[in-house]
From TrEMBL:
Name of this protein: Peroxidase
Protein's cellular compartments: Secreted
MF GO annotations: heme binding; lactoperoxidase activity; metal ion binding
Organism: Rhynchospora pubera
Alphabetized Pfam families for the sequence: peroxidase
Length: 335
């Protein structure tokens, strides 16, 4: 009898597993939380608005966190996990200096509110995807549809970032390679780089362009830069070694507005990073950069397409993930 019962249980488990498998294959949907947490979008958009108004770099920071999260093992909130004694988490990989606190604060705040409204329902990865979309449109960028139903990751390791993120000291060929490895085209790479229209970077990421360029002395700067701009950056970064948090905007003309000025600036030597300028010189990327500089609608259309693709990248559904109760910790502490 006991054995029979066991067999029956096994069958049930198999049936459930098959059911889950088909659920896993289910696509993300726009109305995922319609019944379980109907006020979710409103709660997110109110929190986003107040955070962005009080802290204007939130949009740029959140967009960067979203990109980082998605490109490393999929859009699964693995970036939010804190390191512990047993595990060095993704957010503490080398590149983490540039992962800003505003975004983490915002998502944590939204999550706390949602846990009161509808506990255990809305995933951190869906919150991040929606908050990013809301912030982009709030600062003047295009609005796009975000499908929902992502689950949060069950792992997060610093080593998983290796080779998955573009670095500011890479060549264009290397950066194209990073995007291609994740299934993104050169055009999508350029469109996503347009996010620098609201971005900022730390001095260490461009100090080689403005200080002792090609060993030409302390004040030597990259001649492709507009001279007044280069001198302004030298002044801004004078104490960069003492204070590594000093940052400047990638789009110096309209840093708070999502527009195509980032592309136009590059035509005038007003690019911040060597990789920004190089994208404008490389024959694979230059025609796309020029198109976006001359036509904001073309940029917005391609950006929306690339963001929708990015938002679906490597998502986990069904039992491949969980809805975390806190965004910075797995529900079950594992060793
Ligand atoms: C990453 O951030 C942590 C603190 O959150 C810091 O201790 C660590 O040194 C940082 N890593 C690098 C390489 O900057
Ligand atoms: C580029 O930057 C990364 C991280 O900051 C560093 O580990 C790497 O050595 C650098 N590569 C070159 C060629 O400078
Ligand atoms: C700008 O791009 C859009 C979208 O590709 C296109 O429909 C429009 O005709 C372009 N405008 C100009 C002036 O080329």
């Amino acid at each position: 009898m006991a054995r029979r019962h066991y067999a029956f249980t096994t069958l049930l488990v198999v049936a459930v597993a098959v059911a889950c498998l088909s659920f896993t294959d289910a696509k993300l949907t726009v109305n995922y939380y319609k019944k379980t947490c109907p006020r979710m979008e409103k709660i997110i958009s109110e929190a986003v608005t107040s955070k962005q108004l009080s802290n204007p770099t939130t949009a740029a920071g959140t967009l960067r966190v979203f990109f980082h999260d998605c490109f490393v093992s999929g859009c699964d909130a693995s970036t939010f996990i804190s390191s512990n004694h047993f595990n060095k988490a993704e957010r503490d990989a080398d590149i983490n200096l540039s992962l800003p606190g505003d975004a983490f604060d915002l998502i944590t705040r939204v999550k706390s509110t949602l846990e009161l409204e509808c506990p255990g329902i809305v995933s951190c990865s869906d919150i991040l995807a929606l908050a990013t979309r809301d912030l982009i449109s709030m600062v003047g960028g295009p609005f796009y549809t975000v499908r929902l139903g992502r689950k949060d990751s069950l792992t997060s390791t610093a080593s998983s970032t290796d080779g998955h993120l573009p670095l500011t000291n890479q060549t264009i060929t290397e950066i194209i390679g990073v995007f291609q490895k994740n299934g993104f085209t050169v055009k999508e790479l350029v469109a996503l780089t347009g996010a620098h229209t609201i971005g900022f970077s730390h001095c260490k990421e461009y100090i080689n362009r403005i200080h002792n360029y090609k060993h030409g002395g302390p004040n030597a700067f990259d001649p492709s830069m507009e001279p007044r701009y280069a001198k302004g950056l030298q002044a801004a970064c004078a104490k960069w070694k003492e204070d590594p948090t000093i940052a400047t905007f990638n789009d110096i003309m309209t840093p708070g507005k999502f527009d195509n000025l980032y592309f136009k600036n590059l035509e005038r030597g007003l690019g911040l990073l060597a990789t920004d300028q190089a994208l404008f010189e490389d024959k694979r990327t230059k025609p796309i950069m020029q198109l976006y500089a001359s036509n904001q609608t073309a940029f917005f259309n391609d950006f929306v397409y690339a963001m929708e693709k990015l938002s679906r990248f490597g998502v986990k559904t069904g039992r491949k993930g969980e809805v975390r109760r806190r965004c910075d910790a797995f529900n079950q502490i594992s060793t």
